[in-house]
């Protein structure tokens, strides 16, 4: 049985902050700007959160399904490190606002940025089991950066958004190589979110942990999949992408381990890795959705004789868990993803100033995890709301009443 991603969409918010502008405003060392390889970052507005991101990513996929196929969605999994309740999963809100049938399993997965892959592998295994022939799972990796980090080099790389994936037995976007994977996991405190308003950690330790996991997860993959050759087995490579410069270094380390050097590594990076980074460098770190933003960019940019293509994928989540796995991008994959017009959506985000950015952070911080009653504070952001959300079919947070988050669709 062929199993994998039948359709996918990326939602990365409605606003964009120029990363160089942020560097200059924060007084950060511009010598480090080029290595970051980031151009823009998406910023969540006060009426956006991980639920609205998830629903806004998934709705275009659901709307394109005929009723008979929509009713075959029997599982909704959200993956996030931006949860809004210690018990209630985001999947319950998303399921309700997408109007899906009640005969669904609903749950959430948390393992930092690896959560999206854990959810995808669980959904694919369930489909492959054949316990409900023809059934589909909706997997949504969704995250929003905590707004408390300032005056650090983590801030420019923080993004916000979601990737929704429909998983089933007609994988027109990515046919997974079932069972072809290598994992590496151990306990480490590299980056973490110990409080509702704090995202912190040791950036150097996180980089070292990422690199160690990449090497060992790939080796585990190669030991399991006979005949694997890093240079020739994969037409493309896609990585969890906290920031572009990190992926350049990770790719270099992986290739050096296979004996490659110098210009060969740089040419390989430009040919097999850079095409997958097109969206990430304009969005920032999407956490559990980061790898799948890279996959979306890769698929969106391939066509014609470039397909089908085999892709090796690396997923890393702090704390830590990681996996190297693979799949084939079928011949019509770019046609399937093209109607989502992801590139156009990213290009149409409203540019924001530093003063608007600071106001957004202030308003977002006023509705933290655990808020019992409140409404999004749009004061000073009215024009931005009119530009980005008014009269658009996007889900937004209306308010919180006795801890219950209330949402509504725009028209």
Task: Identify the notable features of this structure and list them briefly.
globular, nine-stranded mixed beta sheet, 15 helices, alpha/beta, 411 residues, 36% helix
Topology:
Elements: E1 4-11, E2 15-18, H1 19-26, H2 33-36, E3 40-42, H3 50-63, H4 67-70, E4 73-79, H5 90-98, E5 105-109, H6 115-129, E6 136-144, E7 160-168, E8 174-185, E9 191-195, E10 198-201, H7 203-224, E11 236-239, H8 244-256, H9 262-273, H10 280-283, H11 290-301, E12 309-317, E13 321-329, H12 333-337, H13 342-347, E14 350-351, H14 354-365, H15 382-388, E15 395-401, E16 404-409
Helix pairs in contact: 3-5, 7-8, 8-9
Task: Report what the structure shows.
The protein has helices at residues 19-26, 33-36, 50-63, 67-70, 90-98, 115-129, 203-224, 244-256, 262-273, 280-283, 290-301, 333-337, 342-347, 354-365, 382-388; strands at 4-11, 15-18, 40-42, 73-79, 105-109, 136-144, 160-168, 174-185, 191-195, 198-201, 236-239, 309-317, 321-329, 350-351, 395-401, 404-409. With 411 residues, it is of the alpha/beta class. A hairpin with a 2-residue loop joins β9 and β10 (198-201). The model has no long low-confidence stretch (mean pLDDT 95).
């Amino acid at each position: 049985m062929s199993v994998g991603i039948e359709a996918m969409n990326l939602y990365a918010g409605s606003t964009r902050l120029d990363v160089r502008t942020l560097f200059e405003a924060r007084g950060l060392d511009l010598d480090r700007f080029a290595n970051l390889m980031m151009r823009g970052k998406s910023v969540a507005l006060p009426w956006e959160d991980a639920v609205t991101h998830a629903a806004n990513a998934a709705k275009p996929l659901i709307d394109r399904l005929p009723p008979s196929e929509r009713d075959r969605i029997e599982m909704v999994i959200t993956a996030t490190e931006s949860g809004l309740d210690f018990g209630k999963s985001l999947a319950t809100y998303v399921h309700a606002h997408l109007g899906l049938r009640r005969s669904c399993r609903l749950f959430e997965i948390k393992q930092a940025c690896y959560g999206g892959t854990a959810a995808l592998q669980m959904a694919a295994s369930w489909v492959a089991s054949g316990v409900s022939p023809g059934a589909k799972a909706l997997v949504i990796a969704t995250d929003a950066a905590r707004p408390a980090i300032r005056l650090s080099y983590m801030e420019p790389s923080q993004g916000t958004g979601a990737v929704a994936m429909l998983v089933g037995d007609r994988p027109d976007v990515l046919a997974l190589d079932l069972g072809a994977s290598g994992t590496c996991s151990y306990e480490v405190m590299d980056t973490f979110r110990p409080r509702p308003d704090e995202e912190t950690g040791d950036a150097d330790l996180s980089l070292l942990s990422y690199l160690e996991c990449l090497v060992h997860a790939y080796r585990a993959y190669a030991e399991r999949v006979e005949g694997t050759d890093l240079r020739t087995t994969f037409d493309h490579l896609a990585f969890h992408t906290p920031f572009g410069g990190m992926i350049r270094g990770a790719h270099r380390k992986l290739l050096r381990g296979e004996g490659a050097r110098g210009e060969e590594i740089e040419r390989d990076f430009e040919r097999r890795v850079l095409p997958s980074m097109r969206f990430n460098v304009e969005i920032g770190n999407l956490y559990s959705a980061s790898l799948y933003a890279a996959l979306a960019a890769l698929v969106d940019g391939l066509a014609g004789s470039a397909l089908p293509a085999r892709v090796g994928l690396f997923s890393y989540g702090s704390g830590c868990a990681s996996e190297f796995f693979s799949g084939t991008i079928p011949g019509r994959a770019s046609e399937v993803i093209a109607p989502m017009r992801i590139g156009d959506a990213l290009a149409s985000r409203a540019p924001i100033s530093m003063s608007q950015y600071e106001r957004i952070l202030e308003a977002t911080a006023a509705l933290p995890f655990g808020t019992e009653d409140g409404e999004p504070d749009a004061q000073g952001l009215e024009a931005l709301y009119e530009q980005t959300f008014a009269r658009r079919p996007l889900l937004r947070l209306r308010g919180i009443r006795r801890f219950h988050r209330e949402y509504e669709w725009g028209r």
